[in-house]
Design brief:
This protein has 117 residues and is mainly beta. It is built from no helices and eight strands. β1 and β2 form a beta hairpin. Pfam families: Cupin_2.
Length: 117
């Protein structure tokens, strides 16, 4: 490969080139790509796994790649399945519960520097 770069900061995203990070509790994440203004991640959940309620200053949107999730944003809960998506405003309290195993594709703006630890 000519001019090998960090697969997370290249202009092309090759899923197989990025390792999963185990977050515990049946959740794992891949940082697919980022620059200072945005970040894309893939998050896999086992059935029953919880993305605990939290908030952050970043804007976020997500699409359900597979599975079924109960998504809560600011006290409002919706069951979403493959192809559905959601938008999280800055500082909105939000979280998910995997009703069955599934994968979310998340995009944040600006990038989540806290994910790069």
């Amino acid at each position: 490969m000519k001019g090998a770069t960090d697969p997370r900061t290249d202009v092309f995203v090759i899923d197989a080139a990025v390792a999963w990070e185990d977050l515990g509790g049946g959740v794992r994440r891949k940082i697919l790509g980022y620059n200072p203004s945005m970040m894309m991640t893939r998050v896999a959940f086992e059935a029953g796994a919880v993305g605990a309620l939290h908030r952050h200053p970043h804007h976020q949107c997500a699409v359900v790649e597979s599975g079924v999730f109960d998504v809560t944003i600011e006290g409002r809960t919706q069951r979403l399945s493959a192809g559905d998506g959601y938008i999280v405003p800055s500082n909105a309290l939000h979280g998910v519960v995997a009703v069955e195993p599934g994968v979310l594709l998340d995009v944040f703006t600006p990038m989540r520097e806290d994910f790069l630890g």
